[in-house]
Prior knowledge:
It contains eleven helices and 17 strands. It is an alpha/beta fold.
Amino acid sequence: MSADAAGRTGITVxxxxxxxxRERRVALTPSAVHMAVDLGHRVLVQADAGEGAGFSxxxxxxxxxxxxxxxxxxxxxDVVVKVKEPQPAEYEHFRPGLTLFAYLHLAAEPALxxxxxxxxxxxxxFETLTDRHGLPLLAPMSEIAGRAAAIVGxxxxxxxxxxxxxxxxxxxxxPPAKVLVIGLGVAGTMAARGCRGLGAHxxxxxxxxxxxxEHHLDGTVDATQIxxxxxxxxxxxxxxxxxxxxxxxxxxxxxxxxxEQVATMRPGSAVxxxxxxxxxxxxxARPTTLSEPTxxxxxxxxxxxxxxxxxxxxxxxxxxxxxxxxxxxxxADEVAAGRAGTDExxxxxxxxxxxxxxxxxxxxxxEVFPDLGGADA
Length: 377
């Protein structure tokens, strides 16, 4: 650590290249790097880390970053900020004293959770950081995933993708596709709007009656349904497309659509489960990749990609960086001051800390892994 001319203590921030299948996003754009450097921090960016999102090494160098070819050197930083959860090959970089800031989705990642706990690392998750508006670091990617769900859902219904050959908006004399959206948070709302924009008939499902009331009035959906299993099952049976977007921050996603219900869907119907990062809210959902995004079960096309926004890396990186950068700078200050991982930590990071001091400290995550240590924080 070092102090700048204004007396602020700077740390080293590492930005590694993503290693998840076809993941082209980058956690910080050059403009965000410039902000961090201006505040006295040293930023190490792995060579070509931003290339897939349209940000060149030259732009990062101009912003003040140090470009390094070796990921081990990037991971040697005080704080590592990345987009997706570390992949198994990256676990070797975990160590006491390292602070990690990324999407972690630990409830669906037992191997990663064990590796974090055993390593002594401090791990902060984008998706569980909360403020008075909700989940500010999850919202931008939820928005993009929701918008994408309408596009990919429509594509999976095409005959060329193995679907039923149903057009979302129908045609003169032919009814539109029926879409069921499970969960009307940010992702579900954007998915519903996108599907309605394509002319589909959209029914929204949620546990929150007030939210259903508001979305029915504002035209987000054509119809609403409170989340009761038997009633949801009737809609599933008639749906051409089911989009899962149910969320419980930090915990496994609730299973809202059962395998038995999926089996009642017409052959060639489709499921897009956006909750798959947290285990999925459709019982037949299992994680897929951008390289192999779909599979068929009970005659239904399943699209369960765990990094949907990674298909739009330029937009997604810019949106993510804008949200993450201020929180990263707060975290950097806490690390520099020795408050990171303690109860004296800045309130602007509330909810983000998942693992510290060799145990899980986020209550919802701890409930999923009771054998890995309880949560006091």
